[in-house]
Amino acid sequence: MKKNCWEIKNCGRQPGGKNADKYGICPATVNNEFDGVNGGTNGGRFCWVVAGTYCNGAVQGTYAMKLMDCINCEVLKKIHFEESREFKLTPNEGKEKNE
């Protein structure tokens, strides 16, 4: 089964998660604009595109601002490996998922 970023990182910031009250709900867990991209739930397998995710102890900015950090992230690398040729990296590719 494909795991979403919050399952890979075990951050607990999904609705009902162990850290949701303390740190808030991560936008990747509830952003349904990219539901299904890379086989994920909401933004869970496209988190590098979702603004406001919390990584490395800080809230991350927009896609353009955080992509270079995300390129080295275990989540992106795992999803890229699993999706292989079907991998979606950019917002435009994500929006084309249902076409």
Strand content: under 5%
Oligomer: single chain
Order of helices and strands: HHHEEHHH
Strand order of the largest sheet: 1-2
Report on this model:
By secondary structure, this protein is mainly α. The radius of gyration is 12 Å and the shape is globular. Helices cover 37% and strands 4% of the residues. It has helices at 5-9, 20-23, 27-30, 63-71, 74-83, 91-95, and strands at residues 54-55, 58-59. The chain has a two-stranded antiparallel sheet. The protein has one domain. β1 (54-55) and β2 form a beta hairpin.
Produce a short descriptive summary.
With 99 residues, the protein is mainly alpha-helical. The protein contains 6 helices and 2 strands, in the order αααββααα.
Topology, element by element:
Elements: H1 5-9, H2 20-23, H3 27-30, E1 54-55, E2 58-59, H4 63-71, H5 74-83, H6 91-95
Antiparallel strand pairs: 1-2
List keywords for this structure.
mainly alpha, 99 residues, two-stranded antiparallel ribbon, single chain, globular
